[in-house]
Amino acid sequence: MPTGNQNSQRPTTTGPRRVKYVRRLDQVEQLTPEQRDRLGPVAARYMFRANDYYLGLIDWDDPDDPIRQLIIPREEELAEWGTLDASNEESVTVAQGVQHKYTDTVLLLCNEVCGAYCRYCFRKRLFMDDNDEVTNDVSEGLRYIADHPEVTNVLLTGGDPLLMSTRRLVEIFEALRAIPHVKIIRLGSKMPAFDPYRVLNDPELQAAFRTYSTPTQRIYLMAHFDHPHELTDVAIQGIDTCIRNGVICVNQCPMIKGINDDPYVLADMYATLSYIGCPPYYLFQGRPTAGNEPYEIPIVQGWQTFQRALTLGSGLARRARLCMSHETGKIEIMGIDDEHMYLRYHQAKHDEDLGRVVAIKSLREELLADDEARKRFAREIRPVPCLPARRRGLLVRPARGGDSHALARLIPICAAPRDAGR
User: Fold this and answer.
1) CA–CA separation, 182 vs 5, rounded Å?
2) pLDDT tens string for the chain (422 positions)?
3) Does 217 share its domain with 124?
4) 377 to 62, 84, 347, 363: CA distances (angstroms)
């Protein structure tokens, strides 16, 4: 099994350090002038940003280095493919910077910058000059949350909330803790991978974690590690610092072509994450976002890779759920056989769909990128009256031409072949 600990370039110093950010390809000395010229149009359309710590993880002698693939633009991104708002987040935006898609959870888009820009980002539209979805003033969002007692979870995202000043974070923490029904504050952040010194070098941030993550109202860090090479000694120390200051850590990431679409790489990362106290939570099927075609893989291939990775791990490393974020909800990919794909609403835009199991026949190998494919997929999972067939406490809606006993086949089909994903 491969291990990220073999990367000789991995930083090990956990003392104070100031990370230098770069926003232009001509600041990346390892790229040749020809490469910079060739990739310039890509960075002009989809913004580039990185820092010297993260660029230092790259083996520049390897053109397929996973960190390089994750952060350096590729010409293939310019292909006409997908849409900028692939999950139609606009439809659940209730105010500027405020999304309310699931009953108990509100998203505050409170920052429009990240420590670096993942090339496969599904919200890359936020980093474009004409976008105004993010707001620096969260007061309207706080009022909305206070007026909705069903909201128990608030996710700070964007952008990356840990790139905001600690003073501003404390103001938001304090305001949310003044709302009695908000029990969980979540930070959606890749800073532990991009710049772990953000946590390590800031005792005021650590103190804020201790103050506002209490035994009955926790702060959760939704960390974002994509590959074992990101789990450096410094990054692990950053996670440990969060944990020691009362933050509960979990990891979520997409499956990305050429980066972590190998079951052994995925299993290696999951094992390390479980060892350090940041167990896997979600693995996402990529969204058909503009610019992301070179990073996406077919659903069936992703499911096979995920299932094989789970067989290579144990315990907490197997907690992850393979899901795709769709306009109608967060849909778990439960199993695939020769005829159907079996999906379950792990979260749903409409409460009546929560827990619904759907069996669909089409689109098993498609990336849902073209308009007609998305429309057909939406028709198959659109909320409609279900057949009254109950198996194991779940309500099953069979596919067109299917039967009402689909769930009975879930046990055999969810066990991936032993050689799947090799």
Assistant:
1) 39
2) 444 444 434 555 555 678 999 999 999 999 999 999 999 999 999 999 999 999 999 999 999 999 999 999 999 999 998 888 888 889 999 999 999 999 999 999 999 999 999 999 989 988 887 778 888 899 999 999 999 999 999 999 989 999 999 999 999 999 999 999 999 999 999 999 999 999 999 999 999 999 999 999 999 999 999 999 999 999 999 999 999 999 999 999 999 999 999 999 999 999 999 999 999 999 999 988 999 999 999 888 999 999 999 999 888 888 999 999 888 899 999 998 877 888 999 898 989 889 999 888 755 455 555 556 656 665 665 543 333 333 333 333 433 333 333 333 332 223 233 333 33
3) yes
4) 38, 18, 17, 7
Question: By three-state DSSP, how is residue 351 classified?
Answer: helix
Q: How far apart are CA 13 and CA 195, in angstroms?
A: 13
Distance CA 308, CA 301 (A): 11
How many domains is the chain built from? 3
Domain boundary among 279, 310, 331: 279
Q: Kindly state whether residues 109 and 178 are assigned to the same domain.
A: yes
Distance CA 25, CA 312 (A): 39
Same domain, 136 and 261: yes
User: Which residue range forms the structural domain that includes residue 150?
Assistant: 1-13+80-279
Indicate if 1 and 21 belong to the same structural domain: no
